[in-house]
């Protein structure tokens, strides 16, 4: 859905995703990093434009372009979303996330997650934020564990990947009562603790 929410801090800027970001995003993806995604690989500008349009048009999804403010020009380095936002139920998920390889292992992911989780728990007042990933995506699952999210279980044969294979989906979550500990861990990783 279209929105005007902008979140900034810790060297990243999350701004409303739009087709104007597609040209910068398309070169960031490749078949290996996209494996396990349910949408087709958007590896050229036209495909990325279509991908962005789908994300923005999805009800109960708030999609962001991610900018790295620690790099000259504050380039677009990825995408992340809130999705399945159910305010009345006090929950949402964070996902549809990808970053260019140049920012893997940097401040970008923990900073973006800190911004998203802070807004979800402290501004929206949600009780639960979930994250999920393809069981084959060890890198993504390790990032969720490192975040401090708790493993909830694996949904077997849960989704169909873009390549037609069935995938198991691994679920993690953070509850409002767990948020202060997760927040402190993220701040420590970013060097902002204390």
TrEMBL record:
The keyword Amino-acid biosynthesis does not apply. Pfam families: Acetyltransf_3. Transmembrane segments: none annotated. GO terms for molecular function: acyltransferase activity, transferring groups other than amino-acyl groups. The keyword Transferase applies. Keywords: Transferase. Residues 13-150 form the N-acetyltransferase domain. This is Protein N-acetyltransferase, RimJ/RimL family. It comes from Flavimobilis marinus.
């Amino acid at each position: 859905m279209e929105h005007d929410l902008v979140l900034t801090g810790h060297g990243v800027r999350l701004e409303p995703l739009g087709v104007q970001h597609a040209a910068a995003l398309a070169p960031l993806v490749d078949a290996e990093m996209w494996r396990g995604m349910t949408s087709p690989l958007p590896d050229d500008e036209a495909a990325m434009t279509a991908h962005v349009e789908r994300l923005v048009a999805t009800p109960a999804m708030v999609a962001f372009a991610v900018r790295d403010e620690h790099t000259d020009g504050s380039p677009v380095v990825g995408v992340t979303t809130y999705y399945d936002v159910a305010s009345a139920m006090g929950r949402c998920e964070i996902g549809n996330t990808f970053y260019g390889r140049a920012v893997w292992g940097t401040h970008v992911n923990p900073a973006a997650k800190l911004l998203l989780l802070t807004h979800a728990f402290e501004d929206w007042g949600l009780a639960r934020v979930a994250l999920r990933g393809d069981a084959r995506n060890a890198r993504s699952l390790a990032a969720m564990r490192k975040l401090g999210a708790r493993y909830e279980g694996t949904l077997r044969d849960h989704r169909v990947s873009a390549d037609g294979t069935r995938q198991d989906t691994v679920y993690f979550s953070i509850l409002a009562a767990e948020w202060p500990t997760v927040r402190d861990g993220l701040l420590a990783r970013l060097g902002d603790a204390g």
